[in-house]
Every structure is written in C-alpha cells, then in structure tokens.
Amino acid sequence: MTTMVPEQLFGWAGQAAMLGWVILIFLPRRWPALLFVPRYVIPLGLSLLYSGLAMSYILTVEGGGFGSLAEVKTLLSNDWALLAGWVHYLAFDLFIGGWIAVQADKVGISRLLQAPILLATFMAGPLGLALFMVMRVGYFRSAQQSDNTPAEGLHQ
C-alpha cells in the first residue's frame, strides 16, 4: 500500500474545487440540488481536509507560526502545511463564489455579468469579492434612481 503524498491531495482538492467552479459559472441554477454542491458539499469536504491537515501539520512545524512573516514562511516551508494553506484558499474562495452567485441571482444581476466576477473570485478571491461588492452597490444605486424605491436586500 502506498502512502498519500501532498501532491496527490493537492490534485484531488484542486479537481474538486474546479468542479464547483464549473457548476457555479457554467451550469444552470434552476436545480437547487446542483447549486448545493459548490455552495456546501465541496467547501465542507475541503474544510474537513484542511482541518485534518492543520491539526496534523500546522501545529507541529518547528519555528512556524502566525506572529511574523518569518514564522509564516517557516510554517509554509513544510509541504503538508503549505497544502493545508492551499486547501484553505480553495474552500473559502469557492464558498464565497457560491455566496456571490446566490446574492447576484437575488438582485437580478445577469449571468453574463456574474461570470467575470466569479472568474476573478476563482483566480484571486478577495478581488472577485471586492468587484461584486462594488457592482452590487452600484446596481442598487441605479435601481433606486430608476424607480425611486428603497434598495431592498442591500444589507442582507
């Protein structure tokens, strides 16, 4: 029996996340069960993987920690701890992507406008989140000016 190596888990985690992004960006959202996969199932699986890796490796790296950049550099010099950090990003970015997709659907932002925001979230999570937040505020301001009614859901 072969032992698991970080590279294998890296590949599997990346494939799972990619499946979630494909569902979010390209597949219809009319089936709630399908949307449930990238919003909850895959991020939960990645979060559990992260938790196991973090408990097993992050806490055991000699000289590693979160108190300084040098400690983080030491921490991430361990392949298992680095994998945990990567899985952390995959889980959170996909979860945020799912949240963005649902919120954008609720306010009526077209799928064509959502796609670049979701792609930005996939490639650089906080950038995509910032773009969505700016677009959402702009969308509500535009809606308020066009019909002179309060922007419902702005603070959801």
Structural class: mainly alpha
The structural domain count equals 1
What's the main sheet like?
A: none
Bin the helical content. over 70%
Beta-strand share of residues: under 5%
Low-confidence stretches: none
| Count of helical stretches | 6
Shape, per Cα inertia axes: globular
Mean pLDDT rating: 88
What oligomeric assembly is this protein in?
Answer: single chain
Q: What is the straight-line distance between the termini? A: 50 Å
DSSP strand count = 0
Q: What do these coordinates show?
A:
The chain is mainly α and 156 residues long. It has one domain (6-147). It contains six helices and no strands. It has helices at 6-26, 32-56, 69-75, 79-107, 111-123, 125-147. α1 (6-26) packs parallel to α4 (79-107) and α4 packs antiparallel against α5.
Lay out the secondary structure.
Blueprint: H1 6-26, H2 32-56, H3 69-75, H4 79-107, H5 111-123, H6 125-147
Briefly say what this structure is.
By secondary structure, the protein is an all-alpha fold. Helix content is 76%, strand content 0%. 26% of the residues are buried.
